[in-house]
Write a structure and sequence with these properties.
Radius of gyration: 21 Å
Number of strands: 8
Largest sheet: 8 strands, mixed
CATH class of the largest domain: Alpha Beta
Shape: globular
Distance between the termini: 33 Å
Structural class: alpha/beta
CATH topology of the largest domain: Rossmann fold
């Protein structure tokens, strides 16, 4: 193992776990996999290899390092076999609190060398996860976005008992993977990105169901409208920059006042009834059905291009 690399064990190889694995393998890091579903274990290495090679083709990974790491992917036949030598254990199983707590308790004995044990959860706090742990100091949440191997943001949510030094170690590992870590200072359901995404999606759903706009046009309006601006600046900075050389406080107060009419008219429901769910699902399927693979490849190309542009802009 080369200097700077981290030995990673990924537990749970659904979509999130495979994304983490693809990211780490693409960086040339040694990766071990484990899942209770043996059929998933059989097919995961080939899919991960495919995703890693896609990253190489998009200019997001070095081919030589990636190919070497692909050949080194290990499949653990037990939790101990996967985690025994790991420096970083990444939990990526389904959102079941009892299952996660049981797993984190097992890590106490099967992952003795791990500096960090992190959960990919977007639903539970690290305080919840460590209820049965003797070593809660090495546990925190590292919540990624989808697709994990492309979207840079990772939300870090420590527990009250997480070692502060560990937080800095994990930040360093994530930066080595070209991720952008942000620290959530106060645990909250959905973390930050999930809550913002939920709020935007609710309004997007509402606009479609009210017949204001079709699904595909709504997605275009968001992706090349506010989402593009937020990618470069974020919502607060975008409004700050709107002020230019004017009085910032006055411009922001004006923007807040202008938004009051929007806020009063935004969707506020907390549950989508079955009939409305069916209408929404039908509308989404009608817009995109039949071209999933092609659409995903196009999405990934756009993401890679935007990432390159943002990275270049940060260094100039």
């Amino acid at each position: 193992m080369s200097a700077g690399q981290v030995r990673v064990a990924i537990i749970g190889i659904g979509e999130v776990g495979r994304g983490w694995a693809s990211l780490c393998v693409a960086a040339g890091w040694p990766v071990a996999l484990f899942d209770n579903q043996s059929d998933a274990l059989e097919v995961a290495p080939a899919e991960i290899a495919g995703r890693v090679r896609a990253l190489v083709s998009l200019g997001r990974a070095d081919e030589t390092a990636a190919e070497t790491a692909i050949t080194g992917i290990k499949v653990g036949r037990s939790l101990l076999q996967a985690c025994g030598d790991a420096q970083w254990v990444i939990e990526a199983i389904g959102e079941d609190l009892a299952g996660k707590q049981k797993l984190f308790e097992a890590f106490e004995s099967v992952a003795p060398k791990a500096r960090a044990i992190t959960s990919s959860t977007g639903r539970f706090s690290a305080n919840d996860l460590v209820a049965r742990c003797r070593r809660p100091d090495r546990v925190l949440v590292t919540h990624p976005m989808h697709p994990v191997e492309l979207i840079s943001l990772v939300e870090l949510v420590p527990s009250a008992r997480t070692d502060p030094a560990l937080l800095e170690v994990v930040k360093g590992w994530l930066r080595a993977l070209n991720r952008i870590p942000v620290t959530i200072r106060k645990p909250i359901q959905g973390n930050v990105a999930g809550r913002i995404a939920a709020a935007v999606w609710r309004e997007a759903i509402d606009l479609v169901l009210k017949g204001v706009i079709d699904v595909d046009d709504l997605d275009r309006a968001v992706s090349v409208g506010p989402a593009l601006g937020w990618a470069a600046a974020g919502p607060h900075l975008a409004h700050y920059l709107t002020a230019g050389k004017s009085n910032v406080a006055s411009v922001l107060q004006g923007a807040l006042l202008a938004h009051e009419a929007y806020w009063a008219d935004l969707a506020s429901w907390t549950k989508l009834e079955p009939e409305a769910q069916s209408r929404l699902i039908h509308a989404i399927q009608k817009a995109y059905e039949g071209g999933t693979d092609q659409i995903r490849r196009a999405r990934n190309r756009r993401l890679a291009a935007m990432l390159r542009a943002l990275e270049e802009a940060r260094t100039t």
